[in-house]
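Moderator note: this is an archived Q&A kept for reference. The question asked for a predicted structure of one protein chain; the sequence and the answer are reproduced below.
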Amino acid sequence: MKKVTLSALAAIAVAGTAFAGPSVVMSKDFKQPCVTPCFRDQEFQLDLFYSFNDAEHQGNSSATDTFLSPATTTPLAPGILNRANPLLTNPSALTGIPAGSTVVRTQRATVSLPPYFSDGSGGGVGANFFFAKYFGIGVEGNWWDGCRSGFNGSLDTTDGVILSGPVNAVTLANAARATNTSVTVLSNGNLLIKDRRLFGNSNRSTANQVTGNLILRYPFEGPICGAPYIFGGGGGVFDGKSTGFGDVGLGVEFRVTPNMGFFTDWRWQFMSGNNGDSNFRQTSLVRDLKNNFGLNNLRVLEGNSRNDVSMTRVGIRFAF
């Protein structure tokens, strides 16, 4: 009986081993698979981006200045075609002024300048280096069509004509209508001729902008890898004369792979020189008024405000 019992227990032990399946042996050399993080503790980044630069809503008023020429006296010599106002569309229409008359001319030019920076699209390149997971520095170049070098205004010319003889009032009235001027016969018989011309252009120049920033980010890993970030720093805009600025902003980056991602950010740029720009960009204005209107005594227009600009970027980022 004792032998039968031992045989039965041995059979049960063998059967239990058979149903338990293959044995698993844990090795000291077993390691979990290595997962590459989206964001490294130290990494170098290259950016390519599109930018939209918004400056229209700043509300800075345009600068306006008036230039008044000294009075000039011109005797009209006998036998010479008397063109009392060379700015007229058809100056020969006023040849009824008798020779020997004297023209006393004054000119007043009123010039208005829009805020210096305007809305503009552009783009650029950037490079960032993160010397720790959460801290980095960046530098970028942005080129955008955002500087206005245009102007607009009016030129009022007043000719006081001291007559040397009688004139035909009907002829003068017809000439005034033909040349879109104002011709008034004064009570003393002399004439007052007024003419107004509008002028201006909307030229724009490229803003060449360089910026450096300190960047703070907070990356997160998972099915979606991202990193919100904030930054601040400063730089300059160069388009013939430099304009310094400081900036602050925020953005977010999403990684498609550990080496490539997309980003978007927004910033506010505090431009310097908001109290006026003496001789900032008015050489072309003064030259135009001198060449086209004979205003040779103009001073340089001052007081044009350099307004703040906000910038939005959207781009692709390569990380190494």
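Archived answer notes: The chain has one domain: 43-319.
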